[in-house]
User: Which sequence fits this backbone?
Protein backbone atom coordinates (compact mmCIF):
# COMPACT_ATOMS: atom_id res chain seq x y z
CA UNK A 1 0.00 0.00 0.00
CA UNK A 2 2.84 2.40 0.89
CA UNK A 3 4.31 1.95 -2.60
CA UNK A 4 1.20 3.51 -4.07
CA UNK A 5 1.95 6.78 -2.27
CA UNK A 6 4.47 7.69 -4.98
CA UNK A 7 1.51 8.27 -7.31
CA UNK A 8 0.30 11.14 -5.10
CA UNK A 9 0.90 14.56 -6.66
CA UNK A 10 2.36 17.61 -4.89
CA UNK A 11 -1.01 19.33 -4.50
CA UNK A 12 -2.41 16.13 -2.95
CA UNK A 13 0.45 16.00 -0.43
CA UNK A 14 -0.24 19.65 0.44
CA UNK A 15 -3.91 18.82 1.07
CA UNK A 16 -2.90 15.82 3.22
CA UNK A 17 -0.62 18.01 5.36
CA UNK A 18 -3.38 20.63 5.63
CA UNK A 19 -5.82 17.88 6.65
CA UNK A 20 -3.44 16.66 9.39
CA UNK A 21 -3.24 20.21 10.74
CA UNK A 22 -7.01 20.57 10.69
CA UNK A 23 -7.48 17.17 12.40
CA UNK A 24 -5.08 18.25 15.17
CA UNK A 25 -7.11 21.45 15.52
CA UNK A 26 -10.33 19.42 15.61
CA UNK A 27 -8.97 17.13 18.37
CA UNK A 28 -7.76 20.13 20.38
CA UNK A 29 -11.20 21.75 20.12
CA UNK A 30 -12.96 18.48 21.09
CA UNK A 31 -10.73 18.11 24.14
CA UNK A 32 -11.26 21.74 25.18
CA UNK A 33 -15.00 21.13 25.52
CA UNK A 34 -14.75 19.12 28.79
CA UNK A 35 -12.59 21.84 30.34
CA UNK A 36 -15.24 24.51 29.72
CA UNK A 37 -17.89 22.05 30.90
CA UNK A 38 -15.93 21.62 34.13
CA UNK A 39 -15.98 25.41 34.64
CA UNK A 40 -19.74 25.54 34.04
CA UNK A 41 -20.28 22.64 36.48
CA UNK A 42 -18.24 24.36 39.18
CA UNK A 43 -20.15 27.62 38.68
CA UNK A 44 -23.48 25.82 39.00
CA UNK A 45 -22.40 24.14 42.26
CA UNK A 46 -21.24 27.35 43.97
CA UNK A 47 -23.73 29.02 46.37
CA UNK A 48 -23.83 32.23 44.28
CA UNK A 49 -23.08 31.27 40.63
CA UNK A 50 -21.97 34.08 38.31
CA UNK A 51 -24.30 33.91 35.34
CA UNK A 52 -21.90 35.86 33.14
CA UNK A 53 -19.17 33.25 33.66
CA UNK A 54 -21.59 30.46 32.72
CA UNK A 55 -22.55 32.29 29.54
CA UNK A 56 -18.90 32.95 28.62
CA UNK A 57 -17.87 29.31 29.14
CA UNK A 58 -20.99 28.13 27.33
CA UNK A 59 -20.11 30.43 24.42
CA UNK A 60 -16.61 28.96 24.29
CA UNK A 61 -18.12 25.48 24.21
CA UNK A 62 -20.34 26.49 21.30
CA UNK A 63 -17.37 28.00 19.42
CA UNK A 64 -15.32 24.84 20.00
CA UNK A 65 -18.17 22.66 18.68
CA UNK A 66 -18.65 24.87 15.59
CA UNK A 67 -14.89 25.03 14.95
CA UNK A 68 -14.63 21.25 15.23
CA UNK A 69 -17.55 20.83 12.83
CA UNK A 70 -16.05 23.26 10.30
CA UNK A 71 -12.63 21.53 10.50
CA UNK A 72 -14.29 18.11 10.01
CA UNK A 73 -16.21 19.44 6.98
CA UNK A 74 -13.07 20.84 5.32
CA UNK A 75 -11.09 17.65 6.04
CA UNK A 76 -13.90 15.51 4.59
CA UNK A 77 -13.99 17.65 1.44
CA UNK A 78 -10.21 17.52 0.95
CA UNK A 79 -10.00 13.78 1.61
CA UNK A 80 -12.80 13.10 -0.88
CA UNK A 81 -10.96 15.20 -3.47
CA UNK A 82 -7.65 13.46 -2.77
CA UNK A 83 -9.33 10.04 -3.03
CA UNK A 84 -11.07 10.87 -6.33
CA UNK A 85 -7.98 12.32 -8.03
CA UNK A 86 -5.70 9.59 -6.66
CA UNK A 87 -7.99 6.81 -7.88
CA UNK A 88 -8.12 8.55 -11.27
CA UNK A 89 -4.30 8.55 -11.39
CA UNK A 90 -4.19 4.88 -10.40
CA UNK A 91 -6.70 3.86 -13.07
CA UNK A 92 -4.82 5.79 -15.76
CA UNK A 93 -1.49 4.30 -14.64
CA UNK A 94 -2.95 0.79 -14.61
CA UNK A 95 -4.59 1.25 -18.01
CA UNK A 96 -1.31 2.45 -19.53
CA UNK A 97 0.57 -0.43 -17.92
CA UNK A 98 -1.95 -3.03 -19.12
CA UNK A 99 -1.84 -1.43 -22.57
CA UNK A 100 1.90 -2.18 -22.69
CA UNK A 101 1.42 -5.84 -21.74
CA UNK A 102 1.96 -8.65 -24.20
CA UNK A 103 -0.55 -11.47 -24.58
CA UNK A 104 1.55 -13.56 -22.22
CA UNK A 105 1.61 -10.78 -19.57
CA UNK A 106 -2.18 -10.49 -19.72
CA UNK A 107 -2.56 -14.27 -19.44
CA UNK A 108 -0.46 -14.22 -16.24
CA UNK A 109 -3.21 -12.18 -14.57
CA UNK A 110 -6.31 -13.14 -16.60
CA UNK A 111 -8.62 -10.61 -18.20
CA UNK A 112 -11.24 -10.90 -15.44
CA UNK A 113 -8.65 -10.23 -12.72
CA UNK A 114 -7.33 -7.15 -14.55
CA UNK A 115 -10.88 -5.78 -14.81
CA UNK A 116 -11.44 -6.32 -11.08
CA UNK A 117 -8.11 -4.75 -10.17
CA UNK A 118 -8.81 -1.67 -12.30
CA UNK A 119 -12.30 -1.17 -10.88
CA UNK A 120 -13.09 -2.86 -7.56
CA UNK A 121 -9.58 -2.74 -6.08
CA UNK A 122 -9.10 0.93 -6.94
CA UNK A 123 -12.53 1.65 -5.42
CA UNK A 124 -11.40 -0.03 -2.18
CA UNK A 125 -8.35 2.25 -2.03
CA UNK A 126 -10.52 5.28 -2.80
CA UNK A 127 -12.95 4.40 0.00
CA UNK A 128 -10.09 3.98 2.46
CA UNK A 129 -8.65 7.41 1.63
CA UNK A 130 -12.09 9.04 1.85
CA UNK A 131 -13.00 7.50 5.24
CA UNK A 132 -10.10 5.55 6.67
CA UNK A 133 -7.36 8.18 6.31
CA UNK A 134 -9.25 10.61 8.56
CA UNK A 135 -9.71 7.89 11.18
CA UNK A 136 -6.13 6.66 10.81
CA UNK A 137 -4.78 10.16 11.50
CA UNK A 138 -7.34 11.21 14.10
CA UNK A 139 -7.59 8.03 16.21
CA UNK A 140 -4.00 7.87 17.59
CA UNK A 141 -3.82 11.66 18.12
CA UNK A 142 -7.14 11.66 19.98
CA UNK A 143 -6.29 8.55 22.03
CA UNK A 144 -2.85 9.77 23.18
CA UNK A 145 -4.00 13.33 23.86
CA UNK A 146 -7.10 12.21 25.78
CA UNK A 147 -5.10 9.71 27.86
CA UNK A 148 -2.66 12.46 28.91
CA UNK A 149 -5.66 14.52 30.06
CA UNK A 150 -7.10 11.57 31.98
CA UNK A 151 -4.00 10.66 33.96
CA UNK A 152 -4.04 13.93 35.92
CA UNK A 153 -7.71 13.59 36.92
CA UNK A 154 -7.60 10.56 39.18
CA UNK A 155 -5.75 7.26 39.59
CA UNK A 156 -8.84 5.15 40.30
CA UNK A 157 -10.68 6.41 37.22
CA UNK A 158 -7.52 5.93 35.09
CA UNK A 159 -7.23 2.29 36.22
CA UNK A 160 -10.88 1.67 35.30
CA UNK A 161 -10.39 3.27 31.88
CA UNK A 162 -7.16 1.31 31.27
CA UNK A 163 -8.94 -1.95 32.15
CA UNK A 164 -11.76 -1.26 29.68
CA UNK A 165 -9.25 -0.28 26.95
CA UNK A 166 -7.34 -3.53 27.57
CA UNK A 167 -10.55 -5.56 27.21
CA UNK A 168 -11.40 -3.61 24.08
CA UNK A 169 -8.02 -4.38 22.49
CA UNK A 170 -8.32 -8.09 23.32
CA UNK A 171 -11.80 -8.13 21.77
CA UNK A 172 -10.61 -6.43 18.58
CA UNK A 173 -7.54 -8.69 18.23
CA UNK A 174 -9.64 -11.85 18.62
CA UNK A 175 -12.13 -10.71 15.99
CA UNK A 176 -9.35 -9.61 13.61
CA UNK A 177 -7.59 -12.96 14.02
CA UNK A 178 -10.59 -14.73 12.51
CA UNK A 179 -11.71 -12.03 10.05
CA UNK A 180 -8.53 -10.74 8.33
CA UNK A 181 -7.76 -14.04 6.52
CA UNK A 182 -11.31 -13.96 5.12
CA UNK A 183 -10.79 -10.44 3.78
CA UNK A 184 -7.85 -11.71 1.74
CA UNK A 185 -10.13 -14.25 0.06
CA UNK A 186 -12.83 -11.75 -0.84
CA UNK A 187 -11.00 -10.18 -3.80
CA UNK A 188 -10.15 -13.60 -5.27
CA UNK A 189 -13.83 -14.52 -5.00
CA UNK A 190 -14.74 -11.27 -6.81
CA UNK A 191 -12.28 -12.26 -9.58
CA UNK A 192 -13.95 -15.67 -9.87
CA UNK A 193 -17.42 -14.12 -10.02
CA UNK A 194 -16.23 -11.78 -12.79
CA UNK A 195 -14.81 -14.74 -14.72
CA UNK A 196 -18.11 -16.64 -14.58
CA UNK A 197 -20.19 -13.56 -15.46
CA UNK A 198 -17.93 -12.62 -18.38
CA UNK A 199 -17.90 -16.20 -19.69
CA UNK A 200 -21.69 -16.34 -19.50
CA UNK A 201 -22.18 -13.05 -21.36
CA UNK A 202 -19.68 -13.89 -24.10
CA UNK A 203 -21.04 -17.39 -24.67
CA UNK A 204 -24.74 -16.60 -24.35
CA UNK A 205 -25.59 -17.97 -27.83
CA UNK A 206 -23.81 -21.27 -27.27
CA UNK A 207 -25.37 -21.61 -23.80
CA UNK A 208 -28.87 -21.15 -25.23
CA UNK A 209 -28.17 -23.43 -28.19
CA UNK A 210 -27.19 -26.26 -25.85
CA UNK A 211 -29.91 -25.55 -23.24
CA UNK A 212 -27.15 -25.06 -20.67
CA UNK A 213 -28.78 -22.18 -18.80
CA UNK A 214 -29.26 -24.21 -15.64
CA UNK A 215 -25.65 -25.41 -15.70
CA UNK A 216 -24.34 -21.83 -16.06
CA UNK A 217 -26.74 -20.61 -13.38
CA UNK A 218 -25.38 -23.28 -11.04
CA UNK A 219 -21.78 -22.17 -11.75
CA UNK A 220 -22.75 -18.55 -11.06
CA UNK A 221 -24.70 -19.54 -7.94
CA UNK A 222 -21.70 -21.44 -6.58
CA UNK A 223 -19.31 -18.51 -7.12
CA UNK A 224 -21.88 -16.05 -5.78
CA UNK A 225 -22.60 -18.19 -2.70
CA UNK A 226 -18.89 -18.46 -1.87
CA UNK A 227 -18.50 -14.68 -2.04
CA UNK A 228 -21.74 -14.12 -0.11
CA UNK A 229 -20.77 -16.55 2.66
CA UNK A 230 -17.40 -14.89 3.17
CA UNK A 231 -19.00 -11.43 3.21
CA UNK A 232 -21.68 -12.63 5.66
CA UNK A 233 -19.03 -14.09 7.97
CA UNK A 234 -16.99 -10.86 8.00
CA UNK A 235 -20.10 -8.67 8.36
CA UNK A 236 -21.49 -10.76 11.24
CA UNK A 237 -18.12 -10.79 12.99
CA UNK A 238 -17.81 -7.02 12.65
CA UNK A 239 -21.42 -6.44 13.69
CA UNK A 240 -20.65 -8.21 16.99
CA UNK A 241 -18.13 -5.49 17.83
CA UNK A 242 -20.65 -2.64 18.08
CA UNK A 243 -22.84 -4.06 20.88
CA UNK A 244 -19.77 -5.35 22.74
CA UNK A 245 -18.04 -1.98 22.52
CA UNK A 246 -21.23 -0.19 23.61
CA UNK A 247 -21.46 -2.59 26.57
CA UNK A 248 -17.85 -1.77 27.54
CA UNK A 249 -18.56 1.96 27.21
CA UNK A 250 -21.60 1.63 29.47
CA UNK A 251 -19.55 -0.41 31.91
CA UNK A 252 -16.86 2.30 31.91
CA UNK A 253 -19.44 5.06 32.54
CA UNK A 254 -20.96 3.04 35.38
CA UNK A 255 -17.50 2.38 36.85
CA UNK A 256 -16.63 6.08 36.77
CA UNK A 257 -19.91 7.00 38.48
CA UNK A 258 -19.46 4.28 41.14
CA UNK A 259 -15.87 5.35 41.83
CA UNK A 260 -16.93 9.01 41.83
CA UNK A 261 -19.78 8.33 44.26
CA UNK A 262 -17.40 6.40 46.51
CA UNK A 263 -14.84 9.26 46.50
CA UNK A 264 -17.51 11.92 47.16
CA UNK A 265 -18.98 9.88 49.97
CA UNK A 266 -15.51 9.31 51.40
CA UNK A 267 -15.01 13.09 51.66
CA UNK A 268 -18.36 13.70 53.33
CA UNK A 269 -18.38 17.10 55.00
CA UNK A 270 -15.77 18.71 52.76
CA UNK A 271 -18.11 20.54 50.36
CA UNK A 272 -15.32 22.20 48.36
CA UNK A 273 -13.54 18.88 47.71
CA UNK A 274 -16.83 17.16 46.85
CA UNK A 275 -17.59 19.89 44.31
CA UNK A 276 -14.16 19.47 42.70
CA UNK A 277 -14.58 15.67 42.64
CA UNK A 278 -17.98 15.98 40.99
CA UNK A 279 -16.63 18.37 38.35
CA UNK A 280 -13.62 16.11 37.74
CA UNK A 281 -15.92 13.09 37.38
CA UNK A 282 -18.03 14.85 34.71
CA UNK A 283 -14.88 15.90 32.82
CA UNK A 284 -13.31 12.45 33.20
CA UNK A 285 -16.36 10.79 31.67
CA UNK A 286 -16.02 13.08 28.66
CA UNK A 287 -12.31 12.29 28.26
CA UNK A 288 -12.90 8.57 28.79
CA UNK A 289 -15.56 8.59 26.10
CA UNK A 290 -13.08 10.34 23.79
CA UNK A 291 -10.52 7.59 24.45
CA UNK A 292 -13.07 4.87 23.77
CA UNK A 293 -14.19 6.75 20.62
CA UNK A 294 -10.57 6.78 19.48
CA UNK A 295 -10.41 3.01 19.85
CA UNK A 296 -13.73 2.62 18.06
CA UNK A 297 -12.19 4.57 15.17
CA UNK A 298 -9.30 2.11 15.20
CA UNK A 299 -11.81 -0.73 15.01
CA UNK A 300 -13.37 0.88 11.95
CA UNK A 301 -9.88 1.15 10.44
CA UNK A 302 -9.36 -2.57 11.10
CA UNK A 303 -12.58 -3.22 9.18
CA UNK A 304 -11.53 -1.19 6.13
CA UNK A 305 -7.74 -1.63 6.16
CA UNK A 306 -7.37 -5.41 5.50
CA UNK A 307 -9.30 -5.26 2.22
CA UNK A 308 -7.47 -2.07 1.26
CA UNK A 309 -4.08 -3.69 1.89
CA UNK A 310 -5.07 -6.67 -0.27
CA UNK A 311 -6.35 -4.34 -3.01
CA UNK A 312 -3.20 -2.21 -2.81
CA UNK A 313 -1.04 -5.31 -3.19
CA UNK A 314 -3.05 -6.46 -6.22
CA UNK A 315 -2.77 -3.00 -7.83
CA UNK A 316 0.98 -2.97 -7.19
CA UNK A 317 1.35 -6.38 -8.82
CA UNK A 318 0.07 -4.83 -12.04
CA UNK A 319 1.97 -1.55 -11.78
CA UNK A 320 5.29 -3.22 -10.87
CA UNK A 321 5.09 -5.85 -13.62
CA UNK A 322 7.66 -5.17 -16.28
CA UNK A 323 6.38 -5.91 -19.80
CA UNK A 324 8.20 -8.89 -21.25
CA UNK A 325 8.64 -7.03 -24.56
CA UNK A 326 10.56 -3.75 -24.35
CA UNK A 327 10.90 -0.86 -26.76
CA UNK A 328 13.97 -0.77 -28.95
CA UNK A 329 16.28 2.24 -29.15
CA UNK A 330 14.63 3.38 -32.37
CA UNK A 331 15.81 3.46 -35.99
CA UNK A 332 16.47 6.97 -37.27
CA UNK A 333 18.49 6.26 -40.43
CA UNK A 334 16.60 5.38 -43.63
CA UNK A 335 18.56 2.65 -45.38
CA UNK A 336 16.41 2.88 -48.52
CA UNK A 337 14.93 -0.60 -48.02
CA UNK A 338 11.16 -0.75 -47.67
CA UNK A 339 8.62 -3.53 -47.16
CA UNK A 340 10.99 -6.48 -46.79
CA UNK A 341 10.52 -9.18 -44.15
CA UNK A 342 13.10 -11.84 -43.39
CA UNK A 343 13.11 -14.72 -40.90
CA UNK A 344 16.54 -16.10 -40.02
CA UNK A 345 16.45 -19.48 -38.27
CA UNK A 346 13.54 -18.39 -36.08
CA UNK A 347 12.32 -20.70 -33.32
CA UNK A 348 9.69 -19.98 -30.69
CA UNK A 349 8.19 -21.64 -27.64
CA UNK A 350 5.78 -20.19 -25.12
CA UNK A 351 7.23 -19.20 -21.71
CA UNK A 352 7.40 -22.24 -19.46
CA UNK A 353 6.72 -24.67 -22.33
CA UNK A 354 9.15 -27.42 -23.29
CA UNK A 355 8.09 -27.95 -26.92
CA UNK A 356 8.81 -25.45 -29.70
CA UNK A 357 5.77 -24.15 -31.57
CA UNK A 358 8.00 -22.95 -34.42
CA UNK A 359 11.39 -24.49 -35.16
CA UNK A 360 14.15 -23.11 -37.39
CA UNK A 361 11.99 -21.15 -39.87
CA UNK A 362 13.78 -19.10 -42.55
CA UNK A 363 12.39 -17.17 -45.53
CA UNK A 364 12.47 -13.72 -47.11
CA UNK A 365 9.78 -11.69 -48.84
CA UNK A 366 10.59 -8.54 -50.83
CA UNK A 367 8.64 -5.33 -51.26
CA UNK A 368 5.39 -5.74 -53.14
CA UNK A 369 5.42 -9.54 -52.97
CA UNK A 370 2.72 -11.72 -51.46
CA UNK A 371 3.76 -14.55 -49.19
CA UNK A 372 1.23 -17.04 -47.85
CA UNK A 373 1.34 -19.55 -44.99
CA UNK A 374 -0.65 -22.76 -44.96
CA UNK A 375 -0.66 -25.88 -42.85
CA UNK A 376 -2.81 -28.05 -40.66
CA UNK A 377 -4.42 -26.75 -37.46
CA UNK A 378 -1.75 -26.17 -34.80
CA UNK A 379 1.11 -26.04 -37.28
CA UNK A 380 2.20 -22.58 -36.01
CA UNK A 381 0.89 -20.27 -38.77
CA UNK A 382 -0.73 -17.65 -36.54
CA UNK A 383 2.09 -17.85 -34.00
CA UNK A 384 4.62 -17.13 -36.76
CA UNK A 385 2.64 -14.11 -37.97
CA UNK A 386 2.28 -12.77 -34.41
CA UNK A 387 6.06 -12.61 -34.04
CA UNK A 388 6.29 -9.83 -36.67
CA UNK A 389 4.45 -7.09 -34.69
CA UNK A 390 6.18 -8.46 -31.54
CA UNK A 391 3.10 -9.77 -29.79
CA UNK A 392 5.69 -12.35 -28.73
CA UNK A 393 9.46 -12.31 -29.16
CA UNK A 394 11.26 -15.12 -30.96
CA UNK A 395 13.04 -17.52 -28.63
CA UNK A 396 15.85 -18.02 -31.13
CA UNK A 397 16.87 -16.42 -34.41
CA UNK A 398 16.22 -12.99 -35.93
CA UNK A 399 13.32 -11.29 -37.68
CA UNK A 400 14.26 -8.39 -39.95
CA UNK A 401 12.01 -5.69 -41.40
CA UNK A 402 13.69 -3.47 -43.98
CA UNK A 403 16.95 -5.27 -43.12
CA UNK A 404 16.74 -4.11 -39.47
CA UNK A 405 16.14 -6.41 -36.49
CA UNK A 406 12.61 -5.71 -35.24
CA UNK A 407 13.92 -5.53 -31.66
CA UNK A 408 15.78 -2.32 -32.57
CA UNK A 409 12.57 -0.51 -33.55
CA UNK A 410 10.49 1.36 -31.05
CA UNK A 411 7.16 -0.47 -30.88
CA UNK A 412 5.36 2.58 -32.28
CA UNK A 413 7.75 2.71 -35.27
CA UNK A 414 7.34 -1.01 -35.90
CA UNK A 415 3.54 -0.93 -35.74
CA UNK A 416 3.41 2.09 -38.10
CA UNK A 417 4.96 -0.12 -40.79
CA UNK A 418 2.30 -2.82 -40.35
CA UNK A 419 -1.39 -3.14 -41.14
CA UNK A 420 -2.60 -6.08 -39.06
CA UNK A 421 -5.88 -7.97 -39.49
CA UNK A 422 -6.41 -10.63 -36.77
CA UNK A 423 -8.28 -13.92 -37.06
CA UNK A 424 -11.22 -12.55 -35.11
CA UNK A 425 -12.24 -9.11 -36.33
CA UNK A 426 -12.19 -6.69 -33.40
CA UNK A 427 -14.41 -3.61 -33.66
CA UNK A 428 -14.94 -0.85 -31.13
CA UNK A 429 -18.04 1.07 -30.11
CA UNK A 430 -18.30 4.12 -32.33
CA UNK A 431 -18.96 4.62 -36.03
CA UNK A 432 -17.85 3.02 -39.29
CA UNK A 433 -15.44 5.90 -39.87
CA UNK A 434 -14.05 5.69 -36.33
CA UNK A 435 -13.31 1.98 -36.75
CA UNK A 436 -11.72 2.25 -40.21
CA UNK A 437 -9.63 5.31 -39.29
CA UNK A 438 -8.81 3.80 -35.89
CA UNK A 439 -5.28 4.38 -34.58
CA UNK A 440 -4.25 6.77 -37.31
CA UNK A 441 -0.72 6.25 -38.55
CA UNK A 442 1.82 8.89 -37.60
CA UNK A 443 2.66 9.23 -41.31
CA UNK A 444 -0.70 10.65 -42.39
CA UNK A 445 -4.18 11.75 -41.39
CA UNK A 446 -6.94 9.52 -42.65
CA UNK A 447 -9.64 11.49 -44.46
CA UNK A 448 -13.16 10.46 -45.50
CA UNK A 449 -11.85 9.80 -49.03
CA UNK A 450 -9.20 7.48 -47.60
CA UNK A 451 -11.88 5.63 -45.63
CA UNK A 452 -14.09 5.20 -48.72
CA UNK A 453 -11.14 4.00 -50.78
CA UNK A 454 -10.14 1.47 -48.10
CA UNK A 455 -13.75 0.24 -47.90
CA UNK A 456 -13.87 -0.12 -51.69
CA UNK A 457 -10.70 -2.23 -51.73
CA UNK A 458 -12.00 -4.34 -48.81
CA UNK A 459 -15.32 -4.87 -50.66
CA UNK A 460 -17.18 -3.08 -47.87
CA UNK A 461 -18.25 0.06 -49.71
CA UNK A 462 -21.56 -1.36 -50.96
CA UNK A 463 -22.98 -2.35 -47.58
CA UNK A 464 -21.81 0.92 -45.96
CA UNK A 465 -23.50 3.01 -48.70
CA UNK A 466 -26.77 1.19 -48.00
CA UNK A 467 -26.71 2.35 -44.37
CA UNK A 468 -28.70 5.57 -43.72
CA UNK A 469 -25.84 7.24 -41.82
CA UNK A 470 -23.10 6.01 -44.22
CA UNK A 471 -19.71 6.49 -42.50
CA UNK A 472 -21.42 7.77 -39.37
CA UNK A 473 -23.43 4.55 -38.97
CA UNK A 474 -23.10 3.30 -35.37
CA UNK A 475 -21.07 0.21 -34.53
CA UNK A 476 -21.93 -1.58 -31.29
CA UNK A 477 -19.26 -2.82 -28.90
CA UNK A 478 -17.55 -5.78 -30.53
CA UNK A 479 -19.49 -5.08 -33.76
CA UNK A 480 -22.45 -7.14 -32.56
CA UNK A 481 -24.81 -5.24 -34.90
CA UNK A 482 -22.83 -6.41 -37.96
CA UNK A 483 -22.43 -9.80 -39.63
CA UNK A 484 -19.17 -11.75 -39.51
CA UNK A 485 -18.32 -10.86 -43.11
CA UNK A 486 -19.05 -7.16 -42.56
CA UNK A 487 -16.87 -7.08 -39.48
CA UNK A 488 -14.04 -8.80 -41.33
CA UNK A 489 -14.23 -6.35 -44.25
CA UNK A 490 -14.14 -3.37 -41.88
CA UNK A 491 -11.10 -4.85 -40.14
CA UNK A 492 -9.38 -5.28 -43.52
CA UNK A 493 -10.31 -1.72 -44.51
CA UNK A 494 -8.80 -0.45 -41.25
CA UNK A 495 -5.45 -2.05 -42.10
CA UNK A 496 -5.51 -0.76 -45.70
CA UNK A 497 -6.44 2.81 -44.69
CA UNK A 498 -3.13 3.20 -42.84
CA UNK A 499 -1.20 2.67 -46.11
CA UNK A 500 1.40 0.51 -44.35
CA UNK A 501 4.51 -1.08 -45.84
CA UNK A 502 3.36 -4.55 -44.82
CA UNK A 503 -0.14 -6.02 -44.66
CA UNK A 504 -0.65 -9.04 -42.39
CA UNK A 505 -3.81 -11.13 -42.82
CA UNK A 506 -4.16 -13.79 -40.12
CA UNK A 507 -6.81 -16.03 -41.69
CA UNK A 508 -8.79 -12.83 -42.32
CA UNK A 509 -10.86 -14.02 -45.32
CA UNK A 510 -12.55 -16.98 -43.62
CA UNK A 511 -15.92 -15.21 -43.15
CA UNK A 512 -16.06 -14.09 -46.80
CA UNK A 513 -17.73 -16.04 -49.57
CA UNK A 514 -15.52 -17.24 -52.44
CA UNK A 515 -16.69 -14.52 -54.84
CA UNK A 516 -16.00 -11.67 -52.36
CA UNK A 517 -12.71 -13.29 -51.39
CA UNK A 518 -11.55 -13.39 -55.03
CA UNK A 519 -12.69 -9.82 -55.76
CA UNK A 520 -10.99 -8.53 -52.62
CA UNK A 521 -7.65 -10.18 -53.43
CA UNK A 522 -7.77 -8.98 -57.05
CA UNK A 523 -8.51 -5.39 -56.00
CA UNK A 524 -5.91 -5.59 -53.25
CA UNK A 525 -3.16 -6.59 -55.71
CA UNK A 526 -4.18 -3.82 -58.09
CA UNK A 527 -4.60 -0.96 -55.56
CA UNK A 528 -1.78 -1.73 -53.14
CA UNK A 529 1.18 -2.21 -55.46
CA UNK A 530 4.43 -1.92 -53.56
CA UNK A 531 2.83 -3.16 -50.34
CA UNK A 532 4.08 -6.49 -49.03
CA UNK A 533 1.27 -8.90 -48.13
CA UNK A 534 1.55 -11.79 -45.68
CA UNK A 535 -1.45 -14.10 -45.62
CA UNK A 536 -2.36 -16.96 -43.32
CA UNK A 537 -5.16 -18.98 -44.90
CA UNK A 538 -6.87 -22.35 -44.87
CA UNK A 539 -8.24 -22.14 -48.41
CA UNK A 540 -6.01 -23.12 -51.29
CA UNK A 541 -7.97 -20.76 -53.53
CA UNK A 542 -6.98 -17.76 -51.37
CA UNK A 543 -3.22 -18.31 -51.72
CA UNK A 544 -2.77 -19.90 -55.17
CA UNK A 545 -1.55 -16.64 -56.73
CA UNK A 546 0.95 -15.79 -53.98
CA UNK A 547 4.59 -15.21 -55.00
CA UNK A 548 5.68 -17.60 -52.28
CA UNK A 549 3.82 -20.13 -50.18
CA UNK A 550 5.35 -21.41 -46.95
CA UNK A 551 3.99 -24.82 -45.92
CA UNK A 552 4.20 -25.48 -42.19
CA UNK A 553 3.96 -28.88 -40.57
CA UNK A 554 4.29 -29.22 -36.78
CA UNK A 555 6.10 -25.87 -36.59
CA UNK A 556 8.67 -26.70 -39.28
CA UNK A 557 8.89 -25.61 -42.91
CA UNK A 558 7.68 -28.46 -45.11
CA UNK A 559 8.12 -26.54 -48.34
CA UNK A 560 8.52 -23.08 -49.88
CA UNK A 561 7.57 -22.15 -53.42
CA UNK A 562 4.74 -21.21 -55.72
CA UNK A 563 1.50 -23.16 -55.91
CA UNK A 564 2.66 -24.91 -59.10
CA UNK A 565 6.05 -25.81 -57.59
CA UNK A 566 4.65 -27.09 -54.32
CA UNK A 567 2.18 -29.40 -56.03
CA UNK A 568 5.23 -31.18 -57.42
CA UNK A 569 7.66 -30.92 -54.51
CA UNK A 570 5.61 -30.91 -51.27
CA UNK A 571 3.49 -33.91 -50.32
CA UNK A 572 2.04 -31.95 -47.36
CA UNK A 573 0.86 -29.14 -49.65
CA UNK A 574 -0.54 -31.54 -52.22
CA UNK A 575 -2.43 -33.40 -49.49
CA UNK A 576 -3.97 -30.12 -48.28
CA UNK A 577 -4.84 -29.13 -51.85
CA UNK A 578 -6.49 -32.46 -52.64
CA UNK A 579 -8.49 -32.29 -49.39
CA UNK A 580 -10.15 -29.14 -50.76
CA UNK A 581 -10.13 -29.67 -54.54
CA UNK A 582 -10.16 -32.72 -56.79
CA UNK A 583 -7.30 -33.40 -59.20
CA UNK A 584 -9.51 -32.28 -62.11
CA UNK A 585 -10.31 -28.97 -60.36
CA UNK A 586 -6.65 -28.40 -59.59
CA UNK A 587 -5.71 -29.10 -63.20
CA UNK A 588 -8.48 -26.79 -64.47
CA UNK A 589 -7.34 -23.99 -62.13
CA UNK A 590 -3.78 -24.45 -63.41
CA UNK A 591 -4.95 -24.11 -67.02
CA UNK A 592 -6.92 -20.95 -66.15
CA UNK A 593 -3.96 -19.50 -64.30
CA UNK A 594 -1.55 -20.09 -67.20
CA UNK A 595 -4.12 -18.71 -69.63
CA UNK A 596 -4.40 -15.48 -67.61
CA UNK A 597 -0.61 -15.27 -67.39
CA UNK A 598 -0.25 -15.73 -71.18
CA UNK A 599 -2.86 -13.03 -71.87
CA UNK A 600 -1.02 -10.64 -69.57
CA UNK A 601 2.32 -11.31 -71.31
CA UNK A 602 0.74 -10.71 -74.74
CA UNK A 603 -0.88 -7.50 -73.48
CA UNK A 604 2.44 -6.21 -72.12
CA UNK A 605 4.26 -6.94 -75.41
CA UNK A 606 1.46 -5.41 -77.48
Assistant:
Amino acid sequence: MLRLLKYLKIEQWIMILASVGLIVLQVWLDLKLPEYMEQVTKQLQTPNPVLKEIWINGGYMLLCALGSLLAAFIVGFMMARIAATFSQTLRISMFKKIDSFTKNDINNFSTASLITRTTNDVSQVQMFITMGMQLLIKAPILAIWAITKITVKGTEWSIATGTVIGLLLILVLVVMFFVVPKFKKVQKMVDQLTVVTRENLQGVRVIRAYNAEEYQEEKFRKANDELTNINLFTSRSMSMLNPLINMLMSFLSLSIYVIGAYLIDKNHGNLLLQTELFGSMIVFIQYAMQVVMAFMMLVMIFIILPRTLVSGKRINEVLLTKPSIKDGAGVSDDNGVKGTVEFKNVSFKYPGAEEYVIKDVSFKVNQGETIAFIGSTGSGKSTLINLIPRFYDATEGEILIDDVDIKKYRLGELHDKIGYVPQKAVLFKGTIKFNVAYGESSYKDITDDDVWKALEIAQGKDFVEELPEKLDAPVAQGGTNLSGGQKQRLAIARAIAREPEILIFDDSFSALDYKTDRKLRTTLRKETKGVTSMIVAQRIGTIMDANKIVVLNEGKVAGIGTHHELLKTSSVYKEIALSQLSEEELAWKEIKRWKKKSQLILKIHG
The domain at 337-417+502-563 is CATH 3.40.50.300 (Rossmann fold). The chain has a mean pLDDT of 79. The longest helix spans residues 213-266. The chain has three domains: 2-319, 337-417+502-563, 425-499.
